[in-house]
Specification:
The protein is mainly alpha-helical. It is built from six helices and no strands.
Length: about 210
C-alpha cells in the first residue's frame, strides 16, 4: 500500500448522516473509527457527549480517570452544545439580523413610494370620477377606469424589481446558511403581494372618498 501502510479490515457497524464543517458548507460524508482501529486520532482530541444534567459528573469522572493514567493530559470543562452553537453562530446571526433589518426597511420604503405615487395618480382623477358618477357611472365602472392606469406601472415595477433581485441574489449566497436559498420563491411572492396590496389600498382611498 501507499506510504508503507498495511491494509486492514474495518467492520462497518452503522451508517451515519452527512455532516457539515460550517453552517454555509455543503454536507459531506464522514467516517468514524474507534480509537482501537485509529490510534493516530488520539493525538488530537476526544469529545464525550453526555446529558446536560450529568455533564459536571461526567467531567469530574473523566478528570479522575485520565489523571490516574496521565496527569499531564488536559481535560476541558463541560460545555453545553446549545451554548457552543450560540457562540459559534454570533456573526452569522448578527449578519442575518442586519440583512433582514435592511431588507424590511427597503421593503417599507419601496411600499411607501408605491403608495404615495399611486395615491397621487388616482387622486388627480378625482374630478373625472365625480363627473362619471354624475352621469350614472357605477362603482364597477370607476374601478374599470382606474385599474389599467395603476396596474400597468405596478406590474412593470414588479417585473423590473424581481429581475434585478434575481440578478443580485448570487452575491448573497455566501452569507446564507446552506439550507437557505437566495432565490426562494416565497420571498418574491411576499414582496410582490405587499406592493400589490399597497397599490390596491392607495387606489381605494380616493375612490372611496369620491363615492361617498
Amino acid at each position: 500500500s501507499e506510504a508503507g501502510l498495511k491494509p486492514r479490515a474495518i467492520v462497518v457497524v452503522g451508517v451515519a448522516a452527512d455532516v457539515r464543517a460550517t453552517l454555509t458548507s455543503r454536507p459531506r460524508a464522514e467516517l468514524y473509527l474507534p480509537l482501537a482501529q485509529a490510534p493516530e486520532a488520539a493525538d488530537y482530541w476526544l469529545t464525550v457527549f453526555a446529558p446536560a444534567a450529568a455533564g459536571a459528573d461526567v467531567a469530574s469522572a473523566l478528570k479522575r480517570v485520565v489523571g490516574a493514567i496521565d496527569a499531564e493530559t488536559p481535560v476541558g470543562d463541560p460545555v453545553r452544545l446549545d451554548q457552543m452553537f450560540r457562540e459559534r453562530t454570533v456573526l452569522p446571526r448578527f449578519r442575518a439580523v442586519l440583512m433582514s433589518s435592511f431588507g424590511l426597511l427597503a421593503l417599507a420604503l419601496a411600499a411607501a413610494g408605491v403608495f404615495a405615487m399611486t395615491l397621487h395618480v388616482v387622486a388627480r382623477r378625482t374630478r373625472e370620477f365625480a363627473v362619471r358618477i354624475a352621469v350614472g357611472a357605477s362603482a364597477r365602472d370607476l374601478v374599470r377606469a382606474v385599474v389599467p392606469g395603476v396596474a400597468g406601472p405596478v406590474a412593470l415595477g414588479l417585473v423590473a424589481g424581481l429581475a434585478a433581485a434575481t440578478q443580485l441574489a448570487p452575491f448573497l449566497r455566501g452569507m446564507l446558511f446552506y439550507d437557505l436559498s437566495a432565490t426562494a420563491p416565497s420571498v418574491y411572492l411576499v414582496a410582490a403581494a405587499v406592493f400589490a396590496a399597497t397599490a390596491l389600498v392607495a387606489t381605494a382611498i380616493p375612490l372611496g372618498r369620491v363615492w361617498r
